[in-house]
Write a structure and sequence with these properties.
Blueprint: E1 12-14, E2 20-22, H1 26-47, H2 51-71, H3 88-100, E3 110-111, H4 116-139, H5 146-169, E4 175-176
Antiparallel strand pairs: 1-2, 3-4
Length: 180
């Protein structure tokens, strides 16, 4: 099978099941953003040396693929995307709590930076937040599983704590935001 179909040459793409949409449709933005987020998570997993974090991020990548397939499937499609684990939010919260227990409480806003790995965590976090906004926009015009929004929201929290946790492990001082 060839990788190119030429169907996208005119700015259109197909959903699972064949329905054609403009590439700037909010549904395409939503699942395209999930794909972009998945690429960032792959980069983070490649850079991290902590086996627990890498294993968890690879697990999340698989779940992001499921989320993307759910977002790429129209409601009335005969295709059925795989189900997301019912305990995924709980797993995210467990990982957040594990890392957060080792951190000092925030008393100020912090700025991304200080180390390349920390900055990549923050880049993944802001992509995750954009994905969340796009999914919210989609949910205002079409039904989206509530679990998807909750997972993406919690995952952005995870990425924030991942940045802080790795800054501490790397002995990098967090950059405190100072009001002008």
């Amino acid at each position: 099978m060839k990788i190119y179909t030429k169907n996208g040459d005119l700015g259109k793409t197909s959903l699972i099941g064949g329905k054609s949409l403009s590439k700037n449709n909010i549904r395409i933005e939503a699942y395209g953003g999930v794909d972009e987020l998945n690429a960032w998570i792959g980069l983070l997993a490649d850079l991290l040396e902590d086996d627990r974090q890498v294993t968890f991020l690879r697990y999340i990548q698989n779940q992001l693929f499921v989320i993307g397939s759910k977002l790429a499937t129209p409601i009335n499609s005969t295709f059925s995307a795989p189900e997301l684990p019912t305990d995924l939010i709980e797993k995210l919260e467990t990982e957040i709590d594990f890392m957060d227990a080792d951190l000092v409480a925030l008393t100020n806003f912090i700025l991304p930076g200080g180390h390349t790995l920390v900055s990549y965590c923050h880049l993944a976090r802001v992509v995750c937040r954009r994905v969340e906004r796009n999914i919210v926009s989609l949910s205002e015009v079409e039904a989206v599983e509530n679990q998807i929004l909750a997972i993406i929201n919690r995952f952005s929290d995870y990425l924030f704590i991942l940045a802080r946790y790795n800054a501490k492990k790397l002995k990098v001082e967090e950059i405190v935001w100072k009001a002008p």
